[in-house]
Amino acid sequence: MMVMKSYLSAMRENIIRWADDIGKADILIGIPCYNNESTIEHVFTTVAEGLHKHFPDKTKAILVSDGGSLDDTREVIESSSIPDDVHKNVGIYRGIPGKGTSIRAIFQTAEKLEVKGCAIFDSDLRNISDHWVKDMIEPILSGEADYLTPFYSRHKYDGTITNNIVYPMVRAIFGQNVRQPIGGDFGFSGEMAKYFANKHVWDTDVAKFGIDVWMTVTAMGEGFKLAQVNLGRKIHDAKDPASDLGPMFFQVVSTLFYLIGYFEKTWRDREEKIDIPVIRDNAELPDIQPIKTNIKKAISEFVDGFKHFDSFYRQILDHTNYSALKDIADETIANNRNHLNFKFSSELWAKILYDFAFIFQTWNRNRRRLVDIMTPLYFGRTAAYCLEVKDMTDEEAEKIVQAQAEKFEELKDYLGNKFTLWDE
User: Fold this and answer.
1) Within 10 Å of residue 369's Cβ, how many Cβ atoms?
2) How far is 267 from 317, CA to CA, in rounded Å?
């Protein structure tokens, strides 16, 4: 088995020399990417135009932090024309392959340049505008916030990991209503970039897809000032929520569960909810391409997974939750997996997630296996959600997401009591 070498810096020598040539900068925009030749030019040139247009008196730079793309992503950047007052570079980061390591290189570059404001934008955005750059940087430079998350409208089937796991859990447990905690586009101060860069997490799943939730929850847990920026609509390369999840699911969920344990004292001692304001307003809502989902496939994944992992669920879940889950699986099988009558309540889902989040803290075996065991249940809840909102508008579906998050809040003590008994 190949062991990945640890590196003190994700910056390669060409990036270090580039930063040395610049000296200091006021603003750095980072674009983490991997095989994005079809979308990267639009994101890159729009960011450059935004910097040129809205920050004419600032020293500004863009770093495209690439994961070793096998297509022409880097060549597209090299040949793109942007305003002369924007410094640019594209380089392959060093370290564990993943979005987190890509962003680590951006953090370290921001620290070296001693920037005042920094932002990160996904490389697959199709509707980014120059105002996104303005709205993600200005509140940082003015001191309105230390850390900014996006607030935007998405198709009702887009972001089901956010809608059904990360958003309701982060909102309920940490008491801060941040609608897109893993939205992909973030703004933060130079001091926060330095803080993130020097945390010892770069040999963990934070170096992969766990980075977004780690940044957001760490900002919450360490008491930084958060705000949300209304960016309007997000149009990007979305996936069918019933399709194979790949490594992202494990990395996001395991990082979130880890953070619940790491910041246990913080969230258990906090009773009040903190209002996270939505600032700026880029309310442009272009038409969005519908996302197709295979609900029958998701239900089959749930049923097959339940049969396969039944004995584990019996051990992991509270007896009442296990019985309710088994009833759903048995009824679905009895109905020949007829998806029209499939139900999986948000209350049961919240309790199941809380069961898994607690067991994660005490699980002495392979934690990857534990999250894998949870995956079929996620497909079940996702199928139920998609059925519930199938004939709704995106705005109507959002009310369902909010109602579920409120249910998670109501049941927060269910999780807290588990930790209390464990501590005793």
Assistant:
1) 12
2) 23
CA distance to 214, 291, 335, per residue, from 67 (Å)? 20, 27, 47
Phi-psi region of 151 (alpha: psi -120 to 50; beta: other; left: phi over 0): beta
Phi first, then psi, for residue 250 (nearest 5°) are -60, -45
What's the rounded Cα separation, in Å, for the pair 296 and 177?
32
Identity of the amino acid at 330: D
pTM (global) more than 0.70:
yes
Measured between alpha carbons, how far is 414 from 411 in angstroms, rounded to an integer? 5
Q: Write out the E strands in 77-204.
A: 86-92, 117-120, 147-153, 186-189
Are 43 and 121 within 8 A, CB to CB? yes
List, for residues 61-99, the tens digit of each pLDDT value: 999 999 999 999 999 999 999 999 999 999 999 999 999
Classify 209 as helix, strand or coil. coil
Q: Are strands 186-189 and 117-120 parallel, antiparallel or unpaired?
A: antiparallel
Q: In the chain, what are the domains?
A: 13-281 (3.90.550.10), 295-423 (no CATH)
Task: Give, for 53, the enclosing helix (H) or strand (E).
Answer: helix 40-54
d(CA 378, CA 249): 10
